[in-house]
Amino acid sequence: MTKDEFYFWTTVATITISICALSLAIWNGYLTRTHNKLSVKPFITSFLQESSTNLTFTITNCGLGPAEIEEFTIFANGEKINNHEEFNVDLESFLAPLTLQNLYTGYNKPGHIIDIKGSTTILEIKADSLAPEEIKTILNRYRLVVKYKSLYGQRFEFDSIKFL
To answer: Are 65 and 151 in contact (CB under 8 A)?
Structure first.
């Protein structure tokens, strides 16, 4: 092998190794970014507690990162309720036949952050008695849709119909 051939093959080997190293670094960066997105992914789910006198509906972030609320929409019989006050008025008029001991409603505005394992009670009803049919009627009347995003801007949606 001549000196020129040696330099040629050394250059080819150097370039090949450099391209492989660059490709591996880019792939590693892609995998790291994917892992980071998953490691801060929020997941909003709901919990329903019911008894003969109580009904509590709560949403909780069971994911690995905080959830930033983009839209928080409540529907009554398919019609959008525009704000928390309107939700209270609708709920109070709908529950008027019941003898209520306590009624609490929660609402998250856009921009609100639900921290990891953080929760928001959306509805809490305490009455003298709640029959299973009454609970079913309440749950069928109202629907909650929450659009939220992760720290990386990934968008997700919670829909109470899928969880109840």
So the answer is: yes
pTM recorded for the entire structure: 0.80
- E strand residue ranges, 51-115: 54-61, 67-76, 79-81, 100-105, 113-114
* Distances 3 to 8, 15, 16, 150 between C-alpha atoms, Å: 9, 18, 20, 58
Q: Which residues lie closer than 8 Å to 141 by C-beta, 6 or more apart?
A: 76, 77, 94
Type of residue numbered 52: S
pLDDT < 70 stretches in the chain: none
Pair type for strands 155-159 and 119-127: unpaired
Model confidence over 111-132: pLDDT tens digits?
A: 999 999 999 999 999 999 888 8
Contact in structure between 111 and 68 (CB atoms under 8 Å): yes
Amino acid of residue 114? I
**DSSP secondary structure letter of residue 128:** S
Q: Within its chain, how far is the Cα of 134 from the centroid?
A: 28
From residue 69, alpha-carbon distances to 123, 147, 151 in Å are 18, 6, 11
